[in-house]
Amino acid sequence: MSNRQPSAYRSAAARAAALLLATTALLATPWLVTAEGRPVGSGRGIAVLPLLNRTGEAVPVGRVRDALVARLADRGIPILDGAVLGSFMRRHRLRYTGGISRETAHQLRSETGARAVLITSLDLYQAGDPPKVGLTSRLVSTGEVPRVLWMDSAVETGDESPGILGLGLISDPEVVLDHVVTELMDSLTTTVLQAAGGELSQRGAGKTAKRFRPKVAYASPEGDPIRPPWGRIAVLPFANESTARYAGEMLGDQLVRHLAAAGGEVVEPGVVRQAMLETRQIQIEGPSIPQVDVLRASLSVTAVIYGEVTEYREAGPGKPEPAVGFSLRAIDTASQQVVWSSVSHTEGHDGVFFFDVGEIATAYQLASELAQAIVLAFRERGDLAPPTAGPLQETLAELVVVAGDPEEVSRRLDAATAARAELERQAAAARMEAEQARTRAGKLEQSLEQSQERISQLARALAENREAAQAAATRLTEAERREAMQSDSIEALEGLLAEARRRSEQAEDRIDGLEQKVRELETALAEATRPEAAEPVAAGPAGDEAHRARVEAAVRGWAEAWAGQRVDDYLASYSAEFRPAGGLGLDSWQAQRRARLTGPSFIELALEALAVEVTGTDRALATFRQSYRSDSYADVVDKTLEMRRETNGWKIVSERVRPAAVGGRPPE
Questions:
Q1: Strand ranges for 348-490 from DSSP E
Q2: ω before 39 within 30° of 0 (cis)?
């Protein structure tokens, strides 16, 4: 998803050219050294964290990380030893690898000497035909103030560049994954080279198609005094109302990526996450004014961006094209005013009219295009301050020092570009030879299929002859048996007949006995499955007390099923006539609840001040304060459950929720 022709990185020639570029610029002469003058590999470099898997599939993320490390090592980038990193992560119990906090960044530099950390997420992986792979990486500095030094994404589908006669089609997901990894590491290597050589590459500064611009947008007036250029920007985790589990995180990453590429100083998402956890800020619809003040003080930010993903759909069976939709707001922290609000939505075929030109095959790419369109709108309005190379070059200066002038670096890059063109020509010839080999293999397969068909015909003929021989033998045996029977005496025939009758009578007796047992089993089964009548409860105070006890037991069973993530028991606590809030259908609500119960790694739920009011012989109200906590969310709310006594116990027919504290809307 870097700004270049996708087809240039779809072949082995492009990968070889990228490798030649890196090795020519980095390894041909010993010009890459640490700030202290020591060669690369001396222990200080980049710490490559384990991948964050957002695909929901069983993917060998360890092998992907190994490929990232290998590409960086091939390009001469110093890498922190894996054993040292593993020991550090175990010592500090570091499990979340989707970001890095201030404390962890400081500890990583002071204990291991790592100057930066590479954070990578696997956001798309489909092994089917065609295979699809999407990766997002960012390089973050270590030390007292973690900074996003570089961030990029790469995505590829096997049928993205089919070429003439389908020569460019790729069916092996490992090949697609190799392309994506190489593309990302080429982007990182180029950034390191440019920054070390004193250049500042401002990516993402181009134009975007009209179809990716927000459908609805509000912005504060151009002359509004509350709208100076933003300094530090915090992008909060996006709320997710789509069916894709990690859509909020992936959309937020794309926004951070394009803001950083456009020159914005974006706070490292791991730092934002840690600040929100420490101040217990977990919101769904957006931060409150007090929460904005806390973020401004703890993160020193001048703008806070948040939003909600309403749709994130990858193409697949029954879903012919991808689609992405989300809303976004930006708050100026000094004035506490909303200075930007927009709604974006698009599908893969939007704006495509002829021969699928311009079609986008993945929601991952759509999210990137929509995020880039919003960032370009920020830049056009003057919200983003002009980019400076200071923090980037200062940090990378600790990682690499160029011993030579920029003209020498430029000369090497030109030589590598010429070599890449030659390798591309050789790769095209290799592809043609491979196609010819595939054609010959196809002819051989066709000949083999014809031979196999002939063998099958002979086998069928042999089987038919065997069946005819067996039939003749059977007829001969039958004739011999009849001849033997005719030679027997009449007494022998009568004896055989009597024995046959006796056995027939015994069989009829057994059949009668079995039929009697079947009738008894059917009767017992009907008795066992007959619904029991609701246990009558006496009217009056004693009856109300019994009702309250049963209602309280039903409510606590509902809470235990929720905390234990037992989805079926949890949904069984609701009446078939339960109507969810907000007009959501019962089936959709059940699917949403199933995802929210199974998503967290743990759930803790506590009920306080549970009170039951019996309002009728089969009606009751249960009120209580509910405290909820999981690995990604926590809140406290006041809840009222309307209960109804049915044949199979007390069931929930409606819920009412009222927040118990200032903040966002709790999950129902």
A1: 401-402
A2: no
pLDDT of residue 10 exceeding 90, the answer is no
Residue identified by tokens 């119990």 is 93
Helices (H), 262-405: 269-278, 289-299, 363-381, 390-399
Residues 23 and 71: their CA atoms lie apart, in Å, by: 11
Beta bridge partners of 326: 309, 344
pLDDT bin (cut points 50, 70, 90) of residue 482 is confident
> For residue 374, is pLDDT > 50?
yes
Give the residue carrying structure tokens 């003439």. Answer: 164
Whether 578 and 586 have beta carbons less than 8 Å apart is answered as: yes
Q: Number of C-alpha atoms within 13 angstroms, CB side, residue 600? A: 20
Spatial contact of 641 and 620, defined as CB atoms under 8 Å apart: no
The DSSP secondary-structure symbol of 228 reads: P
Long-range pairs for 634-640: beta carbons < 8 A, 24 or more residues apart: 634/280, 634/282, 635/282, 635/659, 635/661, 635/663, 635/666, 635/667, 636/660, 636/661, 637/666
pTM of this structure: 0.56
- DSSP string over 367-395: HHHHHHHHHHHHHHHT-BPPP-SHHHHHH
Structure tokens at 72: 């960086």
Specify the amino acid at residue 629. R
Cβ contact 277:296 at 8 Å: no
Region of residue 14 (phi > 0: left; psi between -120 and 50: alpha; otherwise: beta): alpha
Q: How far apart are the first and last CA of the chain?
A: 38
Q: Please report, to the nearest 10 degrees, the dihedral formed by the alpha carbons of residues 491, 496, 500, 503 taken in order.
A: 100
